[in-house]
Amino acid sequence: MSRIDDLIRDLCPDGVEYKPLGEVAKYSPRKVSAEDLNSTTFVGVDNLVSQKRGRIDATHNPNTSTLTAYRQGNILLGNIRPYLKKIWLADRTGGCSGDVLAVEINDQYSKLLESRFLYYILSSDSFFTFNQQNAKGTKMPRGDKEAILRYPVPVPPLEVQHEITRTLDKFTALEAELEAELEAELEARRHQYNYYLDELLSFKDDSNTLWRPLAQLGTFHRGKRFVKTDYSDHGIPCIHYGEIYTRYGISTSSAVSNLDESLRQKLRFAQPGDVILVDVGEVVDDVGRSVAWIGDEPVAIHDHSYAFRSALNPTFVSYVMRTDWFRRQKAKHIARTKVKTLLPDGFSKIHIPVPPRTEQDRIVEKLNHFDALVNGLSSGLPAEIEARRKQYEYYRDRLLTFPEKN
After folding, report:
1. GO:BP terms for this protein (predicted)?
2. Does residue 127 sit in the same domain as residue 222?
């Protein structure tokens, strides 16, 4: 850090100028034919990886004949559900779908701003928070393209940019190496966990366990829509369907969000002991994702969610819904439109095992212990991986924060 501190003190003692992103960069104006693209050069929002993990090869072809062209050094941003933090610094030329923004540095700043430095700026949590706060829509929020161009970008001298990107590149490589080792161990444990989950909940050697369709075991209750402006720091606990993908595991006793108390009469609630299901998703596996609500009070749910209410242990049901055999059955009852949608009538006919309640409780206790080791965010390997990421993000954000020039 001392080298960078020295450079900043010597080259910009009065602070650093901040410019709106739209002054230093623009969205790519160029177009490319879909016929000129392949799986390695086409980038849709589906093959950008969440949490700033770059890209993977596309698994499907573009659905339009003409796309936005990008080139090496452009920064590609996933513009659907900004909280997924999808970003990639292009190392090739190609084309991207309309749900991906290709940001390129303006000609007049080409010798004043490094694309890699700008990539690190737009990879910061402060940028993604800004983007999420300005997003439009509730069903599938999108970043506001005009607001994004207002994001303030520091433009220190090139020598400072060079040193920061060099330092961050080294730190990123080291962090990636350490994280890859932890991820490999975690993946091995997850395979073991999934095998154990399927074996324990298959009851294939137990002819006495009854199997019943969900419709015979309980009832489904749809939530009611609420929007971003309804949120409050305190008030009615709520679970938005989008949070079930990213913020919750098998079960939860507390909600991370709240709604204004004045809305109570307009909302619909999951009761303690319900299992909350998502009815939409970008991919099939997201649809029907569940979390058991084991809190002490009702929780408001969105209209893209259902509360499944039964006398079963809700965490047992949530575990059952994570098994491979259940997910295969579920996939038969999903409408394959652009946004995948659950077909509740068919879904309710899926059979699940119904052992005695004491056996459900015993299985939940076993699986909870294993789940904490493999998936728990406060313990085990996920916690160690998350700690590494937070350490990196803290260091990166510190390097990219400058005193602003008056």
Report:
1. DNA restriction-modification system
2. no
Say whether pLDDT at 404 is over 80.
Answer: yes
The count of domains in the chain is 2
Same domain, 216 and 350: yes
Provide the sign of the torsion angle of the four alpha carbons 176, 59, 286, 368, taken in this order.
negative
Say if 136 falls within a structural domain.
yes
N residues, the chain: 406
> Is residue 378 in a domain?
no
Q: Which runs of consecutive H residues, i.e. helices, occur in 203-238?
A: 214-217
Same domain, 232 and 334: yes
Residue 353 has pLDDT above 60, yes or no: yes
Q: Domain residues for 99?
A: 19-153
How far is 141 from 147, CA to CA, in rounded Å?
A: 14
Per-residue pLDDT at 113: 97
In sequence order, the β-bridge partners of residue 70 are 94
pLDDT tens readout for residues 88-118: 999 999 999 999 999 999 999 999 999 999 9
Q: Using alpha carbons, select from 169, 188, 168 the residue that is nearest to residue 180.
A: 188
Considering the domain boundaries, does residue 251 fall inside one?
yes
Which tokens is 369 given?
């212990």
DSSP assignment of 36-67, as one string?
A: G--TTTEE-GGGBPTTT--B---SS--SSSEE
Where residue 247 sits, what CATH number does that domain have? 3.90.220.20
Q: Full-prediction pTM beyond 0.70?
A: no
241 shares a domain with 337: yes
Residue of 370, 373, 395, 397 lying closest to 384 (CA atoms): 373
Q: Among 326, 354, 382, where does a domain finish?
A: 354
Alpha-carbon dihedral angle through residues 374, 378, 379, 385, given to the nearest 10 degrees: 70
207: pLDDT confidence band, cut at 50, 70 and 90? confident
Looking at 321-379, list the stretches that DSSP marks H as alpha helix, in order from N- to C-terminal side: 324-331, 344-347, 357-375
- Over the Cα atoms of the chain, what is R_g? 24
Confidence tier at 377 by pLDDT (50, 70, 90):
low
Tokens coding 198? 């399927």
Extract the tokens encoding 174.
């080291």
What is the SS3 assignment for 252-313? ECCCCEEECHHHHHHCCEECCCCEEEECEECCHHHCCCEEEECCCCCEEECCCEEEEEECCC
- At residue 291 the predicted structure's pLDDT band, cuts being 50, 70 and 90, is very high
